[in-house]
Amino acid sequence: YTFVSPSSQRVLGYPPEEILRLKPGDILTEQSFAKVTATLAEEVARGLADPHHTHGREAFEVDHVCKDGRILSCAITARFLRDSRQKIVGILGVTRDITEQKRAERALRKEQHLLRQLLELHERERQLISYEIHDGLAQHVFGAQMMLQGLEPWIERLPDDARRSLE
């Protein structure tokens, strides 16, 4: 590193003299360091092959390790710095802390998962109720209707009050 912004120093928790001595592997998780190394190698190869290629990927995500051990999710955007002969002399990287955004995305995914589960549960409950109505109540009503139809010949012989009540 040749320059680290005051805001990066503040977020990561390192004083200026210490952060400038660090290597990328010191402040990135192992997985993020491997990702950055592979991405930069790929982009430098493209940059060497094409002198007009000045930018890398739009942004890629990594995890930074703060001085106090916290892990921050960050989005890095990098641009090549070239000299007058178009030789790559450095990379300008801009890092944004997206920890809260990632936390909100995880919470949203969790809520969406819970909502899907709730909807599935609601649908199963609806099916159970419909089965109960069809196999339970409907069967009883149908059975009662059959019994009443079987009594039809006897209804004529009942007294008027009993016949009206039965009807």
Task: Explain how this protein is built.
By secondary structure, the protein is an alpha+beta fold. The chain contains seven helices and three strands. It has a three-stranded antiparallel beta sheet with strand order 1-2-3, with helices on both faces. The longest helix is centred in the C-terminal third of the chain and has 52 residues, at 99-150. The protein is rod-shaped. The N and C termini lie far apart (95 Å). The model has no long low-confidence stretch (mean pLDDT 85).
Could you give a quick summary of the protein structure above?
With 167 residues, the chain is of the alpha+beta class.
* CA-based gyration radius: 36 Å
* Number of β-strand runs: 3
Helical stretch tally: 7
| Coarse structural class | alpha+beta
Strand content: 15-25%
Portion in helices: 55-70%
SSE arrangement, N to C = HHHHEEEHHH
Widest sheet, order of strands: 1-2-3
- Biggest sheet architecture: 3 strands, antiparallel
The dominant shape is rod-shaped
Which helices and strands appear, and what pairs or packs with what?
Elements lengths: L5 H7 L3 H4 L4 H4 L2 H20 L10 E6 L5 E12 L5 E10 L1 H52 L1 H4 L4 H7 L1
Antiparallel strand pairs: 1-2, 2-3
Keywords:
167 residues; rod-shaped; 7 helices; 3 strands; alpha+beta; 59% helix
